[in-house]
Task: structure prediction
Amino acid sequence: MRFIIDRYIFCEWLKILLLSLLVTVGLLIVHDVYDNLPDLLATGATVGQVLFYYVGLIPSFLPAIVPLALMISLLFALGGLHRNGEIIALRAAGLSLFQITRVLWVTGLCIAGFLLYLNAVWVPWSVENTRNFAHRLKLTNEIEKHGEDQAGLIAPFSYANSAAGHLWVMHAFSEITNQGFGISFYARTPEGKPSRQIVAPEGFFEEVAGHWVFLKGRETTFDAKGEPLRSVYFERLETPEYIDDPVHMLLISQSPQDLSLWELKRVLDASALESAAVIRPYAVRYQGILASPLMALIVLCLAIPLAVAGVRVNPVVGVSKCVGLFFLYFFLDSLCTLMGEQGQVPILVAVWLPGVLMLLLAAILYKKAA
Result:
């Protein structure tokens, strides 16, 4: 008998969950089609390549839409059962709220584990591969039109390594060859005084040696007071002390929201090259991705009591309450994230505090409903 009840509740919930996922994924793909399809077609992408891009893009949507679909499906499925008197009948038969919804709790915990796996494996692959795939198409198109020397140029390009006292300013940087053009490099002492300046029309990162090489430029050195000491011309200048990795330079120049978990990990692994203020937003984003499966548990704890308590006529009432609480959660999350990025609170506190507070609130609601 209990198995029949569990199967019935699970099937009622699963139908709405799958419908919510399909509709939400479809809307997001349509939105991306309007934004990015013209750019893909402009690079000469074939129908097969476009399909590959959008199939690979789907996993990156799931961490955001699965909790939303879970919330909607729980509210409508349980709200419908409550409105039809089925929840009341089951409770009159002696079943507690947890016994009625135990299959949903087990499934929700599985979804939380699935989200953790998604964030660790599938989503980084999806984010990097779809972005790199579209970028490769663009580079290939540029190479065919302008040649390799003119393709993949980022102009202008700048990078500041505050911890090491380095500032790079380039007229253009080639992400294909790791070459910089029109380079002005400045090095400062820990006290902030200039110690070295290199100006060169061209330079590149020597991957085997692991440092920068400048060509046909001028080097200016400064004394301890920051006054110019000498300026000499050079044909080729090896700088073993300057190991700023171009890959890291490109990653750190992007927003943390645009990077995958693996790329964020790479930025954090190279954090010794950066100041704490520069790295902190990437650390907050990294911890936030790891903590995102907690959203599934928050949804369970909020949606179940709201769906069965007082939702006798219209499940939209429960939806409205849940949406209001989620607005509260996202406000707290945004506030704590901002404070964490600015260093006003520890990173772990900034990431986990909103979720913990919402779980406590959900526990109070669940106790009242039980």
